[in-house]
């Protein structure tokens, strides 16, 4: 299953190689052209010579992860690895988690001093990242250095699985769910030029998308994202952002984008016409690649279709498979209506 | 030599908290049957296997115990939206539960759940400095509230869900190495003991409810009333920020405990055995009764000569407890040699002060 393969693939921001290879394999022979650019974006093209609006679909390949920065050589820490985050990770979710280092997936664990040895006042405070280590079982620094070096990246060792009611858990649904939607979309035929941009380095500032959009110069762009969902017990409704299972989310405003109202309304109306559940994203925070894309050149019209992801940026994230399916339905409906001229520039 | 590592991996992915050790017991009992003719389960759920020694008349009686239970949680409330609140059945640091995958054991079967965490995008800077208490954590079953209420009951038990990760140098990481590592030591000891002629009757015991107060040990100590009762339990592996006397190096052999609650002569004998057989060991000091089954054994029935040995593990009471299989083997060597040398003269000397 593609979402499982993509979710379990290794691709921290700046190290997207494995994800790119998975996607390339999926699209081989199904698009007219695939190319990688100097940043590492993978751009798939269909019908470049066709008339009509040039449409760019975007999904980022990278995920939040960790980078090994030091192999400890001292006393009690000999052979343990110091790390920092690649992208935004709350250190509180790191404790007691397994990770894989590098594409060879060297297993390691992030532990903590036993509760028995913590003073009561210590227990009130989160353990800061500076006091956490990755433990690969090395006897000493030399042993660790034989397999790991500073600069190696790591990801959470979370497996994809379906559970609950039509739900799945796994790592990096932000944004492998978008990658899965985009791979599927690129397999369909449309009567206008369609560009699928699988971008790098979204998690450290939408960097790949900016370069990709510049190269493509689209008329219309849609970012496919996994977005914040915090519809849990005790969360105030205004802070929930999205609700799991209530369909894909459309953005009014986020940290980087004020939605093009015409296009947002067009997508909303399209969802209504096709009987697809859809919801508005209810917080200003967070952003996605469209924030970079719409400012390229003379400006780009478009928006984003987001799948709600609970515990986004944590080791185990949760999505509704209905939401994923409905996001694909909405994307198809929007692409079809663009072809039918329902949205004019 | 063939070892029990695969069995340990199986035990670590088996779920069994205090008072519901059944699944672990089901793995342990057949294993004990390969070494003992008689394996019994008592009213508390403790497993007692007896391997008889050689010799006429009164033989030494030694009890070797490892607890089967792991720390767990219990469903305390079903909240709006179907999220679960939980209470402790053993000592979790709530900070280690955030973002963890867990299994809810319902009467209709096991359900996977995720312990929720707030996305950084919505977290205010002042919130980042706070650690959530257990009462604020919740379990997410990704189910409608009505479905949750149909399937989950207050009182359902919850344990960690974690695969075993094989690290470098024969080290393994996962949940419940505390104290499944010691069940492996117990079986490795019996395996080695098969190559010796021993006088002692050996009672190999897997106890229940250690994590909530050594309850199984109390009754099994009374029931067996051995001459020597040795608890096998894990201790603290060295890690930055820990005191030197609470830090034991991995791959440096088992820790043998010394302190008022443990019999000095049994301790000394264990050290002598380690020295003579060139088994690496470390000494752990305690000033109060130990937090392990040996505490209960000392005061079971008329009082017993208690000892405590075990391997160091890092990250105790988390889902990534890490220990070395080499230490497990060394600990088993120590115990097998100790038992093989145990005789009535030593037993009689235990009461001579």
What does this structure look like?
The complex is a heterodimer of chains A (345) and B (353). Chain A is of the alpha+beta class. Chain A contains nine helices and 17 strands. In chain A, strand 10 and strand 11 form a beta hairpin. The longest helix of chain A has 19 residues, at 321-339. Chain B has helices spanning 5-12, 22-33, 145-151, 177-193, 215-224, 264-276, 293-298, 325-341, 344-349; strands at residues 38-41, 47-51, 61-67, 72-78, 84-89, 101-106, 109-115, 139-140, 157-160, 165-166, 171-174, 201-207, 228-232, 235-236, 255-258, 282-285, 305-310, 312-313, 321-324. In chain B, 27% of the residues lie in helices and 25% in strands. The two termini of chain B are 42 Å apart. Chain B is built from nine helices and 19 strands. Chain B folds into two domains: 5-70 and 175-349, Zn peptidases (Aminopeptidase, 3-Layer(aba) Sandwich); 72-160, Peptidase M42, domain 2 (Elongation Factor Tu (Ef-tu), domain 3, Beta Barrel), CATH 2.40.30.40. The longest helix of chain B has 17 residues, at 177-193. Chain B has 353 residues and is α/β, with parallel strands linked by helices. Classes of the chains: A alpha+beta (345), B alpha/beta (353). Chains A and B meet through strand 7 of A and strand 7 and strand 10 of B.
């Amino acid at each position: 299953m593609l979402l499982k393969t993509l979710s379990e693939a290794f691709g921290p921001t700046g190290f997207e190689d494995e994800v790119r290879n998975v996607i390339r394999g999926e699209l081989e022979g199904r698009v007219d052209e695939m190319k990688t650019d100097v940043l590492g974006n993978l751009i798939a093209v269909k019908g470049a010579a066709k008339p009509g609006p040039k449409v760019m679909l975007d999904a980022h390949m990278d995920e939040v992860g960790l980078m090994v920065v030091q192999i400890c050589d001292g006393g009690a820490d000999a052979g343990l690895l110091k790390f920092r985050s690649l992208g935004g990770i709350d250190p509180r979710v790191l404790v007691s988690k397994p990770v894989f280092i590098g594409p060879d997936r060297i297993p390691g664990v992030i532990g903590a001093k036993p509760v028995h040895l913590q003073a009561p006042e210590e227990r009130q405070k989160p353990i800061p990242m500076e006091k956490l280590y990755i433990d690969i079982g090395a006897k000493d620094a030399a042993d660790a250095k034989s397999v790991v070096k500073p600069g190696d990246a790591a990801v959470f060792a979370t497996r994809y699985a379906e559970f609950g009611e039509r739900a799945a858990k796994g790592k990096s649904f932000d944004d492998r769910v978008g990658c899965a939607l985009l791979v599927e979309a690129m397999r369909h035929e449309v009567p206008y030029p369609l560009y699928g941009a699988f971008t790098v380095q979204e998690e450290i500032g939408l960097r790949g998308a900016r370069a990709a959009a510049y190269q493509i110069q689209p008329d219309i762009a849609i970012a496919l994202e996994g977005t914040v969902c915090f519809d849990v017990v005790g969360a105030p409704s205004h802070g929930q952002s999205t609700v799991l299972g209530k369909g894909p989310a459309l953005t009014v405003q986020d940290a980087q984008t004020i939605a093009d109202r015409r296009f947002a309304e067009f997508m909303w109306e399209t969802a209504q016409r096709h009987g697809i559940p859809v919801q508005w994203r209810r917080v200003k925070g967070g952003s996605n690649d469209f924030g970079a894309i719409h400012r390229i050149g003379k400006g780009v019209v478009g928006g984003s279709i987001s799948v709600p992801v609970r515990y986004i940026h944590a080791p185990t994230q949760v999505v509704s498979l209905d939401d994923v399916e409905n996001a694909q339905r909405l994307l198809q409906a929007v692409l079809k209506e663009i072809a039918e001229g329902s949205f004019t520039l | 030599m063939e070892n029990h590592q695969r069995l340990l991996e199986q035990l670590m992915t088996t779920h069994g908290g205090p008072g519901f050790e059944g699944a672990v017991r089901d793995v342990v009992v057949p294993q004990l049957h390969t070494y003992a003719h008689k394996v019994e389960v008592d009213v508390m759920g403790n497993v007692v296997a007896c391997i008889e020694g050689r010799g006429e008349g009164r033989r030494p009686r030694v009890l070797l115990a490892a607890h089967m239970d792991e720390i767990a949680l219990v469903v305390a409330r079903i909240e709006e939206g179907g999220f679960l609140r939980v209470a402790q059945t053993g000592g979790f640091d709530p900070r280690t539960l955030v973002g963890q995958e867990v299994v809810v054991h319902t009467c209709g079967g096991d359900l996977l759940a995720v312990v929720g965490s707030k996305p950084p995008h919505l977290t205010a800077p002042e919130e980042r400095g706070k650690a959530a208490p257990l009462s604020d954590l919740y379990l997410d079953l990704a189910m409608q509230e009505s479905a949750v209420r149909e399937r989950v009951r207050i009182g359902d038990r919850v344990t960690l869900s974690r695969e075993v990760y094989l690290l470098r140098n024969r080290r393994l990481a996962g949940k419940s190495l505390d104290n499944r590592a010691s069940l492996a030591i117990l079986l490795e000891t019996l395996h080695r003991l098969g190559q010796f002629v021993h006088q002692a009757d050996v009672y190999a015991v897997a106890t229940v409810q250690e994590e909530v107060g050594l309850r199984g040990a109390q009754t099994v100590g009374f029931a067996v009333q051995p001459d020597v009762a040795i608890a096998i339990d894990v201790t603290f592996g060295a890690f930055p920020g820990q005191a030197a006397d609470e830090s034991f190096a991995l791959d440096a052999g088992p820790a043998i405990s010394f302190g008022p609650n443990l019999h000095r002569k049994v301790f000394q004998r264990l050290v002598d055995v380690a020295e003579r057989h060139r088994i690496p060991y470390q000494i752990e000091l305690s000033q109060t009764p130990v937090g392990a089954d040996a505490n209960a054994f000392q005061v079971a029935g008329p009082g017993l000569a208690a000892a405590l040995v075990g391997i160091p593990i890092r990250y105790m009471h988390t889902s990534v407890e890490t220990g070395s299989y080499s230490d497990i083997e060394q600990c088993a060597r120590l115990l097998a040699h100790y038992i093989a040398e145990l005789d009535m003269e030593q037993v009689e000397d235990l009461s001579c002060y």
